Amino acid sequence: MANPVLVYVVNALHPGGTEKLVVEMSRAFAPEFRVRVVCLDEPGVWASELRMLGIPVYCLWRQPGLDLRMSLKLASLLRKWRAAIVHAHQCTPWFYAALARLLYRRPKLLLEEHGRFYPEPDRPLRRLVNRVLIRRLTHRFVAVSEDVRQRLGRYEGLDTAGVDVIYNGVRAEEPTSPKQREGSRQEWGFAASDFVVGMVGRFDPIKNLPMLVQALDAAHRREPRVHALLVGDGPELSSIRALVERLGQQDAVRLAGFRQDSRRLLQCMDLFVLSSFSEGTSMALLEAMAAEVPVVVTAVGGNPEIVIAGETGWVVPSGAVEALASVIVEAARDPQRCRRFGEAGRRRFAEQFMLEAMLANYRRIYGELLQPDRRKVAT
Hints:
Order of helices and strands: EHEHEHEHEHEHEHEHEHEHEHEHEHHH
Structural class: alpha/beta
Radius of gyration: 21 Å
Number of helices: 15
Strand order of the largest sheet: 3-2-1-4-5-6-7
CATH class of the largest domain: Alpha Beta
CATH topology of the largest domain: Rossmann fold
Distance between the termini: 24 Å
CATH superfamily of the largest domain: Glycogen Phosphorylase B
Strand content: 15-25%
Helix content: 40-55%
Shape: elongated
Number of domains: 2
């Protein structure tokens, strides 16, 4: 008997935390399911990686605004494949996938919400439509943090008691050798005595990278050993480059752009910083903890659920440039504390955020969805 068809629906497969998770889950479940990936917008650069693994990626080319043809196209594909489970990543794919179930009702539908907008728009009509229709077409709900679960109740009209929290997970990688680490640092022009502050992620407004760059400027002026390596690409890259130049920090702050070897570069950092306005469960943050790099995060979204302030890292208020600068200087001058936080972060990662644990949770949910319905939904 053929394996059941599992369909992931996502906006696109451009580099990002949600998209990385879709790639990882597609690879992990391919031996157990016939996995298909549907992108609402464009394929993105990671589509080719999945296709090379034999996992089909389809694109629906959504038009701006409310494009109800997405649900028609999606329903047609689901019927053609006789899909058993549709796993929608984020709320827009969830909306169109739920409407597709009005046309083809066989698949079980799972929403996984990764993160929220900033600032969060309050849309009463959206909540009403979700309560009356969309949630009734959905079988399971998952949030990647407790904060996201509460926001699904507040802004999407869901009953939070029916939303499971499953934290993201990443693969543990072998640490680089001291010689490899030194080579990576030399590649970017860092001296052995430099204290390298880093960030890996999409250069998006929600990441509040101006806060990080301004804090780096203030920290470097107090502690000249402070340098930075910022890895990633996105719409804010040019404005961040301009800010670095305006502050006269071109020699201290390196902008690496998008790199396939970002996890290797993580291991040459002395401190990882996440200055976001909002987060779900940051994949880059988990990768830093897995690499035993001490971390500092803003007190937003799921960050304080992952980083225990004063035990596994530093937590600063969102937008607090001076507080972040002070932490960077403190970290540069206190290597023992950095080492202690890095080791504690690695232990917390191993206990809570391993990829295998996350996959086991979804494997359990998929198994339950393949059983006869236990919840009243539109079937």
